[in-house]
Design brief:
Layout: E1 2-6, E2 10-12, H1 13-19, H2 29-35, E3 39-40, E4 43-44, E5 51-53, E6 57-60, E7 64-70
Parallel strand pairs: 1-7
Antiparallel strand pairs: 2-5, 3-4, 3-6, 6-7
């Protein structure tokens, strides 16, 4: 499980995808979410504006499992 540190209260799912090097640009988030399943805390979610906070676990089949870690 890869830990993704954040310095703010939350980040959006779209920001996370770029920060975790899953996509190259923020503009790819909408496309990525339409083509791939993303599970946040074991629930499927496709909203790129979904707020991710400290302790949230993101699983993307084929890409890995990530943990949001507040600094």
């Amino acid at each position: 499980m890869k830990k993704i540190p954040i310095e703010t209260e939350y980040i959006t799912l779209g920001q996370f995808l770029k920060l975790a090097d899953v996509i190259q640009t923020g503009g790819m988030a909408k496309w990525f979410l339409s083509e791939h399943e993303v599970f946040i805390n074991d629930e499927l979610d496709v909203r790129r504006g979904r707020k991710l906070k400290d302790g949230d676990r993101i699983e993307i089949p084929g890409f890995g499992t990530f943990l949001i870690k507040g600094v």
